[in-house]
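Appendix B, example 12.
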Amino acid sequence: MKEIILKGRPAFPGKASGEAIVCPDSIQGWAGVDDKTGIIIEDSNIEKGKCIDKKILILPYGKGSTGWSGHFHSAAVSGFKPSGWLFSKIDSRSGVASAVLSIPTIADFTDDIDLFSLIKTGDFIEMDGDTGEVKIIKRDE
């Protein structure tokens, strides 16, 4: 199995691992994730139908209104939350969600690191929000 190591900026501490869900266009808050099931319901999302629970979400940034984090919080209250987040560039929406939900987060990767070409949905991710290190274990292709 091929492994890739990346380094980003630690944004919220903690270690996490799990299967990646890669959303290059992010996930909107309102009508993006079902609050009761944790399933991506945004019609235009390439990962529509997948559950965010215990996954590592790979997103460019938060998408939509300032209530973005509230929708992920509602899903977490229902028992469905990501294990970790990787953001190309963190913004206020994603920063608030990381802190409120206590989800290990790594962000602000350098411009030469394209998360969306390096990581595919189904790859296994090990991440350390204390150091910013990300290990990608490629699924068999």
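The chain has one domain: 3-137. The chain has a mean pLDDT of 93.
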